[in-house]
Amino acid sequence: MHLYGTQKINSKGRLEIGGTDTVALAGIYGTPLIVYDTELIRSRARAFKEAFAEEGVPAQVAYASKAFSCLAIYRLAEEEGLSLDVVSGGELFTAIRAGFPAERIHFHGNNKSREELRMAFDEGVGCIVADNFLEIGLIGELARNHSEPMDVLIRVTPGIEAHTHDYITTGQEDSKFGFDLNNGQADEALRLLTGMPGVRVLGLHCHIGSQIFDTEAFGLAAESLIRKMDAWKKESGFVCTVLNLGGGFGIRYTEDDHPLEPQEYVRSMIRTVKRMTEEAGYPLPEIWIEPGRSLVGDAGTTLYTAGSTKTVPDVRTYLAVDGGMSDNIRPALYGAEYSAALASRMDAAHDVRYTIAGKCCESGDKLIEEACLPETEEGDLIAVFCTGAYGYAMASNYNRLPRPAVVFAENGEHRPVIRRETYEDLIRLDAEPANVGKEGIR
Ligand code: LLP
Fold it and tell me: 397 is in which domain, residue-wise?
């Protein structure tokens, strides 16, 4: 069994996270409960930052907060000196409310509204990552009427698409994001933006995919962006001072996943960027990256209480838990794989095969197709590992299940950072029918 970060098995044979017994946490907060090992998040953040510092390369490590967004995680990102990638007015609002310094916020999105862009200008975000021609027009309008200049990155699709070990390179990428690097769109974006008063173009951005386990695709992306930067310098003298290579660094969900350490990804990127820029006589740009999953993914564990079982003879035994696709849609949506353990009896042999099912009315609501656990009874506490990225962030109230509580656990202390939704929360946005009051039908 693989344990992550500060996880260990304590003297009672139970799973401990951040120095706290998970059975005790479930008793205090109820289940489903998402527990974050914040020490692991901090150590990852430091590993990324230090890898740049060791090479003396100016950098920004921006937490891609779509992976998990709430006030407390923004505070933690601020404490660790990270920058922030936000993709909506809602994420921006939450970050500002958390006291995150606006100048370290990068605003992404392929369809930012006028209102969202205005908000970004009013709050004074550090930069806007321009994604399309409509947005360029809106940025131009807002910048003209704004006292401070706005820094902008141009998001491009370099024609390299990477997922886990595979990547494909094409002349052109079929993506809804960004400007094509090779068909003139990116050049046109640069021409428009550099002609706008109040707009300062910092450089280029790309994000080539998710759960990437090697360095090759990042290197190829860096090379193609630098080639474009060099072409612009030769044509017009325009020099990019920032190269943002996005996120996508892989994590270990199951034993089949073999991610690299943060340092390895970063060192390899730096090598490529230095080599390419030295060859071209181009000034070394700042390198920015945007890890999401690799900062919070394996730091999150979801605790569920075991409920009903159903055996389909000679096929499988379903073991249902008190959550499911409502708090983790990734297995149903992407066929994502997870591993699990019996948090209340970690020291027992995990040798019985179960299919862990959720409680939503959907046959596809299965969290793990094949999990090995001890013989499990109603009330046992099940831990599903690596749920910290795109779990709570993509949660829903399907079947009117209240969303779980979230706690941070560190050094033997724990604190709630998102409270569990109540039934009252579920109806808070509903208009009350005329003849129904708080006590029901009058
Ligand atoms: N930067 C940009 C521009 C992105 O679009 C993303 C992710 C990231 C950074 C962070 O990527 P990460 O380091 O977390 O892989 N819901 C999917 C993942 C969608 C990722 C979208 N963009 C999932 O659950 O796997």
Answer: 8-37+297-426
pTM of the model: 0.97
136: domain CATH number is 3.20.20.10
The backbone torsions φ and ψ at residue 164, rounded to the nearest 5 degrees and listed phi first, read: 40, -120
CATH number for the domain harbouring residue 416: 2.40.37.10
pLDDT in the model for residue 171: 65
- Kindly list the protein residues whose Cβ atom lies closer than 6 A to any atom of ligand 1: 64, 67, 85, 108, 207, 210, 246-249, 290-294, 330, 389-390
Number of folded domains in the chain?
A: 2
- Model pLDDT for residues 199-219, shown as the tens digit of each residue: 999 999 999 999 999 999 999
Residue among 360, 361, 372, 386 flagged as catalytic: 361
Q: Band of the pLDDT at 91, cuts 50, 70, 90?
A: very high
Same domain, 278 and 172: yes
Residue 433 confidence (pLDDT): 84
Distance of alpha carbon 186 from alpha carbon 188, whole angstroms: 5
pLDDT of residue 438: 67
Does residue 213 sit within a domain?
A: yes
Torsion of CA 224, 229, 230, 234, to 10 degrees: 140
Question: What DSSP string describes 357-409?
Answer: E-SSS-TT-EEEEEEEESS--TT-EEEEES-SSSSGGG---GGGPPPPEEEEE
Q: For residues 273 and 320, state if they share a domain.
A: no
What average pLDDT does this structure show over 243-257? 97
pLDDT band at 168 (very low <50, low <70, confident <90, very high): confident
